[in-house]
Every structure is written in structure tokens, then in C-alpha cells.
């Protein structure tokens, strides 16, 4: 029998056992996310976007029932060409949702943000995981998470969402992403964030061509060099659509195929819109590894 390598992550006062990979369900409280933007709009709102907390809770309940261990709540789209929203708007979108989920469900709540104010308020509302596509590079981000016992996911992105797909040249995409994450990990440790609370994400789709994305996926095992959990966020992205030629809502099978490759190469957390299908894929993967 093959035994999966023991790996864990400290999140708040919990320790998540990652010897079996876990699913992070995506909960976008936005009007413009590439896949599910606007899904949580309040029924009575015809103009400006406002989040229905009840819709968010029902979606959260469904994902937890399907097997999600972490729920990632975001209030600002980071799709290519996405525009920045104000701090107050982002707060209005995510804080009531986090508070409600924290009250009603026993689940790890992640906040998908790069903004220190949002990090602090989300942690106070019940989030114990910060998923930052900018890897704590904004001024004040380290101060927002240090000493809070939260887990942090450090992701690689070149540029900003509004321009990240304009100039996507690399000498060696894998080497450059590895070097960037190594630098961010070292800074976290210098600031007092322990490695047992860190996760790395190569940033599929963030300042990369389709070819770069698949090159990163093929060599994902190289990211195990850090000895940290690897998060793979592939779900429904254009790297899948460009290969299978299907619209966003019809990319589940393609996403699961990519997920299996990520799992085979060391991914411990899969961030996805399609929780049930991903949980099934993980169960089959684990059965094969343990056979």
C-alpha cells in the first residue's frame, strides 16, 4: 500500500489534514466574475449590485454538503481586464456573507482579497484564511495578517487584472514563478508568519498565456520544493476553454481532467466552482494512490 505524504495546514485554531487533498469552494459576491458573476444578486435589485446574504448562505450550504472544507468568499473580480472596486464596496459585499456563514456553518472561511482593510474586517467577521492573488504585496497587508493565526495563500500574478494579459513574456515561466514565491515565503517568515500557515499557488491564468499555464501544470511537482501545500485554481478558466472549445458553464469535465493532473503532481487544495465533481475526482485519485 502507498501512503500519501503527511501534510497539514494550520488555519485559525484548526489543523487541516492534507494527506487527502481538500476542496475550496468558490463563492463570488461580485457582478462581474468570469464564471458566476451576479449569481448572488439580491432579487429586488435592478440597478446597482447588492449581494443577497441568503443566496450566499444557501450556496455555501450546498458546497459544504458536497464536500468543500474551505469556502473562498470574494468581493472583487480578478478576471483579466477586471476593474478595481472601492474598499467600501468590497466590504459591503463580503463582510455580511462571512458573518452569516461563520454563524451558520462549521467550515473554514477564506477571504479572497489583497486589500488590508478587507483582510482585517474579514478576520474579525470570522475568516481564518486569506487568499491573496497579490501575495501580501500591498502596503499594510503583512500588518493585517501578522499575529492573527490565519492561513495565507501566496499566489503569483504578473501585473494587475486590468493589464496582466498584455505583456506575458518569461524567460522561464516555472523558474520565475518559483523564484517569486520563494521571495514571498521568506518575507512572510521574516514578518513572523510561520510556514505551517502558508500555501502557495502558481496563479494559473494570472499573467500567463495558455501555453504558460499548461507548462506550469505539467511541472507543478516542482513547487513541492517549498514543503508547503500547493493550491491549484483551474476551475472553468480560459486555459480549459481554449483547449476544449466550450463556454464557461460547460468546462467541468475539462477542469476535472486538469485537476487530476494537478493532484498527481502534488496539489493539496483544489479551488473550484464545481465542488461535487472535484470531490469525486479526489476520491478516485486517493483510491488509486493508496491501492
Shape: globular
Strand order of the largest sheet: 8-7-6-5-4-3-10-9
Biggest β-sheet: count, sense, barrel?
Answer: 8 strands, parallel
- Terminal Cα span: 6 Å
Task: Write down the Rg.
Answer: 18 Å
Beta-strand content: 15-25%
Name the structural class: alpha/beta
Low-confidence stretches: 33-38
Write the H/E string, N to C: EEEHEHEHEHEHEHEHHEH
Counting DSSP H or I runs of 4 or more residues, the number of helices is 9
Can you lay out the helices and strands and say which pair or pack?
Blueprint (H helix, E strand, L loop, with lengths): L7 E4 L2 E4 L4 E7 L24 H14 L3 E5 L12 H18 L3 E5 L3 H10 L3 E4 L8 H5 L5 E5 L17 H18 L7 E4 L8 H9 L11 E4 L4 H7 L7 H13 L2 E6 L2 H15 L2
Parallel strand pairs: 3-4, 3-10, 4-5, 5-6, 6-7, 7-8, 9-10
Antiparallel strand pairs: 1-2
Helix pairs in contact: 1-2, 2-3, 8-9
Amino acid at each position: 500500500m502507498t501512503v500519501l505524504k503527511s501534510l497539514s495546514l494550520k488555519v485559525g485554531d484548526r489543523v487541516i489534514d492534507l494527506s487527502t487533498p481538500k476542496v475550496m469552494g468558490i463563492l463570488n459576491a461580485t457582478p462581474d466574475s468570469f464564471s458566476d458573476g451576479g449569481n448572488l444578486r439580491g432579487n429586488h435589485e435592478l440597478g446597482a449590485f447588492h449581494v443577497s446574504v441568503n443566496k450566499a448562505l444557501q450556496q455555501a450550504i450546498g458546497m459544504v454538503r458536497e464536500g468543500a472544507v474551505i469556502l473562498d468568499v470574494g468581493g472583487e473580480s480578478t478576471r483579466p481586464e477586471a476593474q478595481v472596486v472601492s474598499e467600501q464596496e468590497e466590504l459591503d459585499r463580503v463582510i455580511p456573507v462571512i458573518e452569516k456563514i461563520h454563524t451558520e456553518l462549521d467550515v473554514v472561511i477564506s477571504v479572497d482579497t489583497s486589500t488590508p482593510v478587507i483582510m482585517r474586517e474579514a478576520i474579525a467577521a470570522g475568516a481564518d484564511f486569506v487568499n491573496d492573488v497579490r501575495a501580501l504585496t500591498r502596503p499594510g497587508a503583512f500588518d493585517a495578517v501578522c499575529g492573527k493565526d490565519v492561513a495565507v495563500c501566496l499566489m503569483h500574478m504578473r501585473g494587475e487584472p486590468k493589464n496582466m494579459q498584455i505583456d506575458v513574456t518569461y524567460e522561464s515561466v516555472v523558474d520565475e514563478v518559483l523564484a517569486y514565491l520563494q521571495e514571498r515565503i521568506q518575507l512572510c517568515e521574516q514578518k513572523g508568519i510561520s510556514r505551517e500557515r502558508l500555501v502557495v499557488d502558481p496563479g494559473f491564468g494570472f499573467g500567463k498565456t495558455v501555453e504558460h499555464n499548461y507548462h506550469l501544470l505539467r511541472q507543478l511537482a516542482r513547487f513541492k520544493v517549498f514543503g508547503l501545500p500547493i493550491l491549484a485554481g483551474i476551475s472553468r478558466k480560459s486555459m480549459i476553454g481554449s483547449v476544449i472549445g466550450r463556454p464557461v458553464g460547460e468546462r467541468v469535465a475539462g477542469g476535472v481532467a486538469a485537476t487530476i493532473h494537478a493532484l498527481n503532481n502534488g496539489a493539496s487544495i483544489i479551488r473550484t466552482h464545481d465542488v461535487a465533481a472535484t470531490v469525486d475526482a479526489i476520491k478516485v485519485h486517493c483510491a488509486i494512490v493508496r491501492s
